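Re: folding output
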Amino acid sequence: MTHRFRTVAIILVVILTTAGIALSVRQQLSSQASQPAANALETDEESVAGAKGAVIDFLTALHDKRYAEAETFYGSDYGLLWNWNPTVESSDHAALWKNGCEMNGLVCLEIRNLAVAEHPDAKTYVVNVWLSNADKTEFTTEFGQTMFPFTVAKLDNGTFEVQTMPPYQE
């Protein structure tokens, strides 16, 4: 009986030791797995802030009539602005923004509020923006729209560019 007891005791020690090692390895793996997630969260929060910052900088520059500065935050096509202004050189983006805001009907108002609405992939953000009229009331289109989505692209160098023009109103 003593020999049988000793065999059971040895088997139990082996099982408990194996279970302890497995638990320790599992805890280490779990700890390591949560580390990148925390870093990814920080990176995502930084990217969300970058996307919002690009929209703020772009719309604020347009509102303040700093058109050359606004062009540095915009990364999409100027074709529509050029179609509206065929006498302006297509490479003169500042002049195209000036005409767009001052003559063509782009709404270049102050930001009232904004929030990131979507993050469909690692390099694309959708920022919803609400604008204020000069009298600080909320801007509303003739169709009752008050919120305007702006798509922002994160470039490989880590910078952000707005891909959407301001709203248009006749």
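--- second protein (sequence, then structure) ---
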Amino acid sequence: MPTPPQTKSYYRYSPGHVLYLTGTTVFLLTVFMLSWFPTSDVLPKEVDDYLETGRFLTINDGKGYTRVFVKEEPHTDDIITSNEAILLLHGVLSTSFTWRHSLASIHQQTGLRAIAIDLPGLGLSDKKLNRPYDFHYYTTVVEEIVKSFGINRVHLVLDDISGLFGSEFAVKNSGQIASITYLPTFLDVAEYQQPLLMRLLHVPIAKEFVFQLMTSNLFAPLSYLIFKNQFSDTMPYDTFRAYTYLLRHQNGKQTLFEIINNLDLRPEYGNYLKDGLNRNCAHIPKQLIWSEHDSVVESKKQASFIANHISGVSRHTWFDTKHLIAEDQPQEFSDCLSSFINDHKSK
């Protein structure tokens, strides 16, 4: 029986399809090129006002001297040592600016000095290009901040990536830790899946486009919608522009890329933190202040891991927010944090 002839199948682009693909390519290339036009670096009023209420502290970060922006309550222009204090540490796309509406209330309710810093490489702190910007480096930075303020007992408030290096600091300095509050973070390193935006920041060409998307004036309306979807439902547009200014000014792009490249997401590092917290810090009271709608750190999965695998978690409070809890509900956040700290501060 003769074999039927094989019909060759050809996929042919119609003229309309070719026109569509060509137009789309030209549009994307045009947008990409336009995004490189200089972006206005005028200091936003919200950042200017915030800058006036803080100060710079020079520390030895293990690689030399660097200036760190500090916002504290009560506000002072001098270093006043505090035997016991609250230290709030931010994540990779935020700064101490996130805590601006909460610090005064936390201080008033607890009677303790409330200190927030901009991590080197982010915000208003120095963005030097000869720093490693890994978790071990940031652990050293926290140690120097605590030493500079003469703090013997510190209540840690850890958000996003600071949950990891803040935990490393706690493991290495457990005798100084009064309590730990975790906001959405990812201690289950082995199971953590970075959101698409973060994954793209690892890709050589794509990361340039993503950074422009996040920070340029041209893309601001679009990036504002993306930011609201991921980080904060209630953030006004002007506040969003303050965040993007803090991200890009000075050498912001280069240092952000370094931070992203140096994220230690090895399962071995996660096991080191889990084992160290359970060995050295099991006696330290811990709480979770978590967001119901956080897609940045796979909220419920990560919260469950900490509650079930880290000893000492005694309280878990859910907020009807996205990633930046203190941005959306600053007073409720302050009340929740202060209540826990009052239960565990020195009498």
